[in-house]
Amino acid sequence: MTSLRVFFVGGLTSYRALFYWLTPWVYVPSLLVAPIFQILLFVYIGRSAGLESDEFYVIGNALQYAAIPCVFAMGFAIGGERYQKTLGSILVSPARRLPLFLGRAVPVMLNGAFVAAFSLAVGGFLLGIDLPASALAPLALVVLVCAISCTGLGLINGALGLRVRENAVLANIMFGLLLIFTGANVPLDQLPGWMRAISEVTPLTHGIEAARLLADGASLGSVDHLIGQELLVGFAYGLVGYGLLRFLEWQSRVHATLETA
Amino acid sequence: MRIVRLVWTGWKFHAKSLTLSGFYLLTAAIQPVIFASIAFFMFKAGAREGTLLYVSLGAGLMGIWSATLFASGGAIQWQRWQGTLELSIASPAPFLFVLLPMTLASATIGLYSLIGTLLWGRLLFAVPFEVADPLLFVAAVPATVMGLGLLGLVMASTFILWRNANALSNLLEYPIWLVTGLLVPISLLPGWVAPLSWVLAPTWGVRAIRDAALGTGEPLAAIGMCLALGAAYLAIGSLTVRYFENLARDRATLSLT
Fold first, then answer.
1. Partner A contacted by B171 (CB < 8 A)
2. Looking at the partner chain, which of B31, B42, B185 has a beta carbon nearest the beta carbon of A51?
3. CB neighbours of B197 closer than 8 A, spacing ≥ 6?
4. How many angstroms away from the CA of B45 is the closest CA of chain A?
5. Using the beta-carbon criterion (under 8 Å), do A49 and B27 form an inter-chain contact?
6. B170 and chain A: CB distance < 8 Å anywhere?
7. Which one-letter DSSP state was computed for residue B93?
């Protein structure tokens, strides 16, 4: 029961605290308008290079943008506690760590899914992309799965925040690498072999591929293996992130670096 | 003379401070390299290899713009956090010349981006770096830095009243990359974008650098436009800094706490 309370109430409180500074003046430009311009930039580069259709870039970049709210927010969930001087209090509390950190992850996932869905809808509307009505519900599922896997990566970023002060740099680098390795903008078969191998275990790669197939009229059943792979990748990252959190928490106690990292 | 000394000292100070910021340097160096890599792959796959130096120079300029934007958004906010904003404004030196070195220094640090992307392109994608007119290239780079830094000044001045200026600076990154033709020819964009691009220094900066490097167009004219726009930005900036500073004093919102 206590764990459930920590999960729900703690997660909600942490998310509301995020909105103490994440006002509409920050949220709208950063999470609703910026992805549209990212989509437009790559659509036009794509047209200039004569490489892929507009739909390719709209889907790729809309889903990839879920990384901004997921990776950054999970980083801030840890970094913010340190900044507010509450990290020490949280880590000395007897609360179980799994509900503590997962509670913080759930609102982040939902927000990431919303941002990706909004970008897909508005980007598609602006560029005249027609998505079959039958694909909308499966696409919503894929968007949610992508947000889950990105949050797994975000958990790693948050964990590293226990050792690294410049969390936002890491998040920026992760975001940039996702732009390349997920096939959001460059077809995977155009990447060198070693990059394709990394793509296989990168969050979003399988989700973006599934979304593109669904938009082209494929059924949910025909892409279920891609959705499964995406979930698997997300859980793997989440597991690594959680393990890293526990390890670095222990390290911070041993080396007394909680407030100095 | 005192103004020149103030700007020079401020520029040196901020350039050194920014050089010590891992966040700033990584953002300036890595982000454009990532965008350049994507563009290299896209253009290579699209069988337009002849344009790779074009892409490389554009990606470098993207980094200079990001660096300028980031510092312009933060220029006021950082001083606010450090508690030095009131002191800077109350000092006898005009605030314009306290702010100017900060945006100029950030644009200068953005040169890491240009060098980084050129090196990256050369080492990993075998992009040839042969400058058609080295003299004009050397003139075009500081003119571009100056133009971008002064555009940053105009933006920074409008951020005095805004607690969330950083968010606006996030927003302005992609649109300026797009409408100034850093990676996409402006002719590919809707017709109404062209007049908008003419009043933005990065348009002329990238044109000057590319024309000098590739031996096309008229780099000297582009350098002239970049400097002329820079002078216009300075004039606008001096008005906006004074206006927003007075407004912040009247409303007692300087610290925004």
1. yes
2. B42
3. B179, B180, B181, B186, B203
4. 6
5. no
6. yes
7. S
Separation between Cα atoms, residue B61 and residue B50, nearest integer Å: 19
Structure tokens given for A248: 């670095």
Cβ contact, residue pair B175, A38, below 8 Å: no
Domain ranges across chain A: 2-255
Q: Is the ipTM of this complex over 0.90?
A: no
Asked if B164 has any chain A CB less than 8 Å from its own CB, the reply is: yes
Contact A29 B173 (CB under 8 A): no
Tell me if A190 sits within 8 A of B44, measured CB to CB.
yes
Give per-residue pLDDT as tens, A99-149.
Answer: 877 888 888 889 999 999 999 999 999 999 989 999 999 999 999 999 999
